[in-house]
Amino acid sequence: MKRPNVQALCRIAADASLPAQRRVKAVEALCYVDYDAPYREQILPTFIAIIDSLAPAPLVVAAMRAGSNYWWQGDRAPLRRVVQQHFRSPSADVAQAARQAFIQTMEPPPHDLPYWSRLNQPKARRETDAAFLQRAIDLARENVESGRGGPFGAVITHKGKIIAEGTNLVTLSNDPSNHA
Amino acid sequence: MDIREAAFRLQCVHFDGCVIYSSCEPCPLYLGAIRWARIGKLFFAATREDAAAAGFDDSFI
Predict the structure, then answer these.
(1) Does the beta carbon of B11 lie under 8 angstroms from any beta carbon of chain A?
(2) Does any domain span residue B60?
(3) What mean pLDDT, rounded, does chain A reach?
(4) Any chain A CB within 8 A of the CB of B27?
(5) A28-47 confidence digits (pLDDT tens)
(6) Which candidate from B5, B39, B45 shows the least CB-CB separation from A136?
(7) Domains in chain A and their CATH numbers?
(8) CA atoms of B4 and B12, how far apart (whole Å)
């Protein structure tokens, strides 16, 4: 498959003088580029600039959907910050996409996990059990303090390492089954 | 949410040998999900009675 020209697509996506339709197409094409580091450094700032600007609603929605595709790599704090501004957007589409993107940017990336999740010590089994349980309790507490949902958190481990963490997002995602 | 994420990371639907740690005893919905995912071990902190006392009662299910 031919690789897309990332620079050209970024330029089209960022160019406010072009019609919104064309910029949406460019953003959607960027969403499928390989997530290599050099590309990511060009693509994510482009998306963030679009979400942060007063771009037309379909363009903002496209940028939020595509930007959240990159959630498992790099620093997602800037994306999260600009996405939050759209929670109370007058356009229902934008508000909905912002909530979805925010939930996706909240998923913990592997390198954000606490140091003891990388340890694999069968001898200290009881201590790690207590630590993982404490982590679930901490997640529940953080979840209430940040107002994302109910006081519930969970951690899944495999061979002594955390592979997933979750919290209750019922009120944030308006999903009655999103318990933890 | 976390079971979905784990399934995505491990690229499988059955988690034999996995352990789940939860801040509270799972509701019937999530107990079902844990059983379907075949997660072998579950640790939880608060009980369902604690949750009911805090206003999250699932005994009607």
Answers:
(1) no
(2) no
(3) 77
(4) yes
(5) 888 766 555 567 777 888 88
(6) B45
(7) 6-106 (1.25.10.10), 110-173 (3.40.140.10)
(8) 10
Q: Does A158 contact B2 at a Cβ distance shorter than 8 Å?
A: no
Q: Which domain holds residue B23?
A: 2-53
Burial call A110-132: b when 16+ CB within 10 Å, e when fewer: eeebeebbeeeeeeeeeebbebb
Q: Measured between alpha carbons, how far is residue B58 from residues A91, B21, B27, B29, B49 in Å?
A: 36, 19, 7, 10, 9
Backbone angles phi, psi at B56, to 5 degrees: -115, 75
Question: Interface pTM (ipTM) of the complex?
Answer: 0.79
For residue B49, tell me if it sits in a domain. yes
Q: Is residue B8 included in any domain, yes or no?
A: yes
Contacts of B29 in chain A (CB under 8 A): 177, 179
- Identify the pLDDT of residue A109: 53
- Asked whether the beta carbons of residue A164 and residue B54 sit closer than 8 angstroms, the reply is no
CB contact under 8 A, A179 and B2: no
B45 close contact with A: CB closer than 8 A: yes
Residue B9 domain-assigned (yes or no): yes
Establish if A69 touches chain B: CB-CB under 8 angstroms: no
End-to-end CA distance of chain A: 39
Q: How many domains does chain B have?
A: 1
Q: Model confidence over B2-36: pLDDT tens digits?
A: 788 777 777 777 888 888 999 988 888 888 888 88
- pLDDT tens for A53-107 read 888 888 888 888 887 666 555 667 777 788 888 888 888 888 888 888 887 777 6
Question: Which whole number is the average pLDDT over A152-171?
Answer: 85
> CB contact, 8 Å: B54 with chain A?
yes
B43 touches chain A (CB under 8 A): yes
